[in-house]
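Appendix C: a fully annotated inverse folding record. The material below is reproduced so that readers can follow the format used throughout the book. The structure is listed first as tokens, followed by the designed sequence.
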């Protein structure tokens, strides 16, 4: 966190603009992406982490998440018991995709 300027309010100095860097620790990135920390660490060491990252001299690994959020994906599953219910299958898939 970096404070750019400040102003006085009843004798207190308050930050008017606070800038946050987009980098995050590897542990936070792993939690947000549903990956165990140890797996994310192994990915970083192997060079296959799906986001750019760098290690500080202190050992902390910082990850730069993508600039735009990734749209969540889901698989839709619907089934019917016989082929003559194909219309029901199409209706189920339509309903699931709208959800």
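Designed amino acids, in order:
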């Amino acid at each position: 966190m970096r404070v750019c300027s400040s102003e006085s309010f009843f004798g207190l100095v308050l930050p008017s603009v606070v800038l946050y860097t987009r980098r995050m620790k590897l542990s936070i990135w792993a939690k947000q992406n549903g990956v165990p920390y140890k797996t994310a660490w192994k990915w970083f060491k192997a060079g296959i982490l799906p986001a750019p990252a760098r290690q500080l001299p202190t050992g902390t690994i910082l990850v730069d998440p993508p600039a735009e959020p990734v749209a969540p994906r889901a698989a839709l599953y619907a089934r019917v018991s016989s082929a003559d219910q194909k219309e029901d299958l199409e209706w189920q898939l339509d309903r699931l995709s709208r959800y």
